[in-house]
Hints:
Layout: H1 5-23, H2 29-57, H3 66-70, H4 73-83, H5 105-132, H6 137-160, H7 172-198, H8 203-238, H9 241-249, H10 254-274, H11 278-281, H12 284-306, H13 314-333, H14 336-343
Helix pairs in contact: 1-4, 1-13, 2-4, 2-6, 2-7, 2-12, 2-13, 4-5, 5-6, 6-7, 7-8, 7-12, 8-10, 10-12
Amino acid sequence: MKQDGPALLIAAGGGLAIALLALSPIGGGLGSMLVVLCFWIALAQGGIAVAATCDLVNARWIASVKPRLLALTPLLLLLTILFLLLWPELQHYPWNGMGGRYLNTDFFMGRNLVALLLTYAAALAYVSAALRGTAQRQKAAVIYLFLFVICQSLVAFDWVMSLEYPWYSSMFGIYFFIESLYAGLAVAGLLFWWRLRTADREQGQVREHFRDLATLIFGFSILWGGLFFAQYVVIWYGNLPEETGFIVRRTSSSTYLQMAWLFLGCNFLIPFLGLLSARVKNSPALVGAISLVILVGLLIERLLYILPVLAISPLTALAQFSLLGLAFVVALRHRSATGDRAEEL
């Protein structure tokens, strides 16, 4: 507990600062907070989901970064608490006040809060079993992944898609949780770069694990590109006004169009073309750079989802993003003393 104390204090302080920013008159309302939450919850839940998936298939490469990914668990509780800050701002959703059975304020907050808390509880159970190396860790991994898919689907359908009510896409849920896994792999890529930059022992084994991860990131770039195209081509082929409006609003101005091309390049073109080369796959610095590009692309995509609908205060969003980023880095680092032991599990 003494070792966790500074990390918990920093996370609590960061969460309080974010809450004060969100509730202040210059807080930027729903838009700023929604962008920040959508981004960091994808990284935190996705990182743990990557570790859980690897446990299910007995993947060896995860051993080098598993303790750090599991250390993201406290962030899930912090993000759940920060989600409550959205409650007063739900009036900005177009369905507010319509009296729908599914889309109403109380049910919106209730189902999302339950999903976030259950996902956090499942993450705690999985992390405990994984770090102790018990036989229950695969069962716990399945439970976490099931709740992870539900939670990310709610982020997609409730938090983001319902901003464009009555527009809908049945692929939004799978797109979001695959993208969260993609983000988790990108975080692992940065962790490998950091470890190979600073560690001297067992370099050969860590590098072997690193090459496996680089191949996975390459594969997920193709998967992400396929899902993006599948979602887009159905809307394009149907050419119905109620469906095309979502895309038109995000490509009608030169700024939004540039953002769209930018996140497409960051999430697909750069990882795909870059990791075609075996030399790049064997370079921690280059794979780390590609991983960072993927995360930048994810952030740009979140901005593009929300900017055409809600106003965002740049300074407030930057401050909230930075505070959660600090909590994220602290979470990744504060278990370094126990990391070597956990890698053997």
